[in-house]
Amino acid sequence: MVDVQTQAGRRMRLPSGWSVGAALIAAVVVAPILSVIVIAFSPLVTGGENIWPHLVSTTLPRYLRNTLWLMAGVGVLTCAMGTGAAWIVSRYRFPFDRWLAYLLLLPLAIPAYVGAYALVDFLEYAGPVQTGLRQLFGWQTARDYWFPEIRSLPAAIFVLSAALYPYVYLLARAAFREQAGAGDEVAMSLGVGALGRFWRVGLPLARPAIAAGVAVVMMETVNDFGTVDYFAVQTLTTGIFSTWLESNNAAGAAQIACVILTLVVVLVLLEKASRRRSKHYLTARGHRPVTRTQLSRGRGWLACALCSLPVLIGFVLPGGVILGHALDRAGAWRDPALLKALWHTVAVGGTAAVVTVLAAVFLVYGVRLSGRAVPRMLMPLTTIGYAAPGAVLGVGILIPLARIDNGLADMLEALTGRGFGLILTGSAFALVLAYSVRFFAIAQGAADAAFGRVSPSLPMAARSLGRSKGQVLRAVHVPLIRGTLASALLLVFVDCVKELPATLLLRPFNYDTLATRTFEQASLENLGEAAPPAILVILVGLSAVALLARANR
Q1: Same-domain status, 152 and 34
Q2: 336, 440: one domain
Q3: Does any domain span residue 279?
Q4: Closest Cα partner for 167 from 206, 215, 205, 208?
Q5: CATH number for 352
Q6: 113 and 79 fall within a common domain
Q7: Cα separation of 356 and 181, whole Å?
Q8: Domain containing 80: what range?
Q9: Residues 41 and 112 reside in one and the same domain
Q10: How much is the pTM?
Q11: Domain membership flag for residue 215
């Protein structure tokens, strides 16, 4: 009888505070996505103005067509650049190969919109390229020669590919390095050449990793706003801005956001399906890495040139152009508006990074303590924010938060007789929330991996000595995982600094960050004033690249 009661009590046991807190954190992360869906369908429920038929018959096909062309072009180009560079550096020895293995990561430090500003400045009519051509051939005006249109869809594909190919390169290089040398040796014994070994051995084994990298690239492409807006390419993301801010129709913006979410879900499902269909295993016994081949002098320098080209296009060119403008306008560095934007960036990005990492640690620890299936099912859902573009999160956060904020302000005024204004949307709270939701997957993945490396015997020993769950977390887990948490903190902060669409939608009035100041000054064709904040964004990005290079040595 006692055993039955004990078992019934266990089944009826209330969840702990850790489990409840973990569930609340998961709900906060998922809520903006659900909010977008609710707002999108609200006109159908409430009988309000539904502009979906108007969007379908006018602008939506153009937005969708441009977005799909952009995704396809960037996906193909980054796949070729990233996979080709990864194969060369992982299979061959040539001059500066060790340096280039890490230098190929540098374009990650430069946001795509900064690369767009630099490319236009470099190639426009008054830029050094066309000016040099006119002087060299004696041309007088633009009518004397043909030059490709700079602000166009192909140019946007080129810039985004140069900025995003390291995602594919990083995963492809890791996959090529992990492959066994036996496959190459068998292929060589059968007379298969270098190109044949790439197509028949290396590429099929690395295809899941390459597909994952291309999927990330395509999601980042959908998220981009600064590049496509500067190049006057109308995509789904620019459609959210124009429908909401210019047409003042939040439901229409949410409906476009739902189209973006559908594209993202399709990408994720296709990526998972490709990995499920292609499963390859390495035997731990007798595993030998591939021996890199020493190239001849001519081929070695050709390989060096091919691997240097993405670095020159994606980092040296935009970085050099922006640095040149920054040095020419030395007085811009003392601009109080720049210092204010720097403070806003550090304060909001730092706060969001700390909140995100702490929430991720709480969530992962709470789920591990609960040991139940439902909390574990919630963890993958919290990663959806990283796949959702910043503009989508802006719609899902700002509209419901504004309603809550107005109700809160009315309630406080009724209770105190004083007007407090908008507390949530009138401050940086919405930005911190958006950053936390958007980059929660980075912190959660790092925390989950770090907790998994801690031996279960250590917290069990601490619990046997009478330590509470919180004390075990502070005394046992945190000292062991603080290095990983510090890395996650840095990565989240860097992404917060570079984030543009969500910042443009959610920032308070007259509240600039480095990203928004760069965008606004460049939009006014004032690259001299845009250069200093862009340089600061690049320097922050370099810290993340250094961390990635250290982790992939």
Answers
A1: no
A2: yes
A3: no
A4: 215
A5: 1.10.3720.10
A6: yes
A7: 41
A8: 54-173+221-264+294-328
A9: no
A10: 0.86
A11: no
Separation between Cα atoms, residue 464 and residue 462, nearest integer Å: 5
Tens digits of pLDDT across the chain (553 residues)? 445 444 544 544 556 677 777 888 888 888 888 888 888 888 765 556 778 888 888 889 999 999 999 999 999 999 999 999 998 998 889 999 899 999 999 998 899 999 999 999 998 888 899 989 899 888 888 888 888 888 899 999 999 999 999 999 988 888 888 776 666 656 666 666 667 777 767 777 778 888 888 988 998 899 899 999 999 899 999 999 888 878 788 888 888 988 988 888 888 777 777 666 555 545 445 456 677 888 888 999 999 999 999 999 999 999 999 999 888 887 888 889 999 999 999 999 999 999 999 999 988 888 887 766 666 777 777 777 777 888 888 888 888 888 888 888 778 777 887 777 777 888 889 999 999 999 998 888 888 888 887 778 877 888 787 888 888 888 888 888 888 888 888 889 988 999 999 999 889 888 999 999 999 998 888 888 899 999 999 998 888 888 777 766 6
Contact 240, 392 (CB under 8 A): yes
Those residues with Cβ within 8 angstroms of residue 71's Cβ, 6 or more apart along the chain or in another chain: 218, 221, 222, 263
Contacts 24+ apart (CB under 8 A), 44-51: 48/251, 49/249, 49/251, 50/251, 51/243, 51/247, 51/249, 51/251, 51/252, 51/255
Alpha-carbon span 536 to 457, nearest angstrom: 45
Whether 393 contacts 434, CB under 8 Å = yes
Start-to-end CA distance of the chain, whole Å, equals 61
> Quick one: CA dihedral 205, 207, 213, 216, positive or negative?
negative
3-state DSSP call for residue 467?
A: coil
Three-state DSSP at 50 gives: coil
- Same domain assignment for residues 313 and 369: no
Q: Which two tokens stand for residue 503?
A: 């910042």
Would you say residue 507 lies in a domain? yes
Residue 280, phi then psi, degrees to nearest 5: -130, 145
Give the C-alpha separation, 543 to 488, whole Å. Answer: 12
DSSP letter at 316 equals I
Amino acid making up residue 452: G
CA dihedral 173, 175, 177, 182 (to 10 degrees): -140
Distance, in Å, from the CA atom of 82 to the CA atom of 272, rounded to the nearest integer, reads 20
Question: Cα–Cα distance between 270 and 277 in angstroms, integer?
Answer: 11
Residues in the chain: 553
Q: How far is 306 from 81, CA to CA, in rounded Å?
A: 9
Q: Are residues 238 and 361 in the same domain?
A: no
* Residues 468 and 545 grouped into a single domain: yes
3-state secondary structure 225-283: CHHHHHCCCCCHHHHHHHHHHHCCCHHHHHHHHHHHHHHHHHHHHHHHHHHHHCCCCCC
Strand 293-294 vs strand 92-93: parallel, antiparallel, or unpaired?
parallel
- How far apart CA 420 and CA 409 sit, in angstroms, is 6
Structure tokens at 182: 């036996």
On whether both 353 and 298 belong to a single domain, the answer is: no
